[in-house]
Amino acid sequence: MFNSLQQQPADKILALMQVYKEDPRENKIDLGVGVYKDASGQTPIMQSIKRAEHMLWETQDTKSYVGLTGTPEFSETMIDLVLGDKFDKNLTASAATPGGTGAVRQAFELGKLANPNLRVFVSDPTWPNHLSILKYLGIPVEPYRYFDAKTRAVDFSSMMTDLENAKEGDLILLHGCCHNPTGANLKAPEWDAVIELLLKSGATPMIDIAYQGFGDGLEEDASGVRKLVNSVPETIIAASCSKNFGIYRERTGLLIVVSHDKDARDLNQSTLAFLNRQNFSFPPDHGARLVTMVLSDEELKRSWMEELEAVRTSMLSLRTQLATELEKLSGSNRFGFLADHRGMFSRLGASPEQVNELRENHAVYMVGDSRLNIAGLNSKTVPVLAKAIVDCGI
User: pTM for this structure?
Assistant: First the structure.
């Protein structure tokens, strides 16, 4: 039977990680993999998470299954985080998932179940796994222009032109904040225009929010999502705890379905339970339990927010330092966009050949489309990267 299997394309980011590991050069810089790193190059465990884990170790008395959609407490605390504690939870159905990726996958499954002729409008570019999952599920993709390669900003007029083709029964996939891979975000008036388009077209928004707190702050990063959810009839949200809680390997995510028709909640909730059962059955609980504990305890939450703010400001500082260093070396402000972008990523605008040159001649590793992970830098490697970028003629 297995003789009929075909070799699947390798994940480019995972392949890049392997090449990086095998590179013997001591001065190599990893800007590819999407994890936060501190100044020492480590991905630390937050102290608030460590304290919660210790408390859990002391008090947990069972490892039995949780419900098919996780615990109500996890859903409630996460809905408060994403949508605000004043949002009416009677309008929401939710399900815990294995990471934000699991939430994205279940969201696409939900859309396909609701509409067998589903189309998903996806920003060009987007996180590659969006496209990979959609292709695997056989769901047609409608790309919409998003990033202006010259200005390194959102190409909003082109985006809106392309989204004019969306209609009722379609999903429009939007990044809640800190767009991956570009780092270029929608501004408040642009969120308003997107809302008007959604109301006119009848299409359903799907929000992937994986970096809340990494951009302009916890509340600020959720402001566009909250405005949208309060304005349109239905919204699907895939939320991740990997980055802002630093619990990557615990695979902690939540799928939220909002409907302003309160009568739809029970049906939506039972559908999410059904989808979980068909896929992985009961979701993992350890990470979800830690998030619940942190968000439910005033002292732990205050500690977590302070740690998250330190992560955010560290990345902003690195962005400013890199933009300043590049301006000094190049004699041009053409890299000013790096300071304007938000989150872990920016797209540098280098050609594949220049990306290869960075890797081969300077031991600088980034994804082929020139997405670089700002959090992979520190104050000492920023000047090294800046010189490499200028030397490669980018």
Answer: 0.95
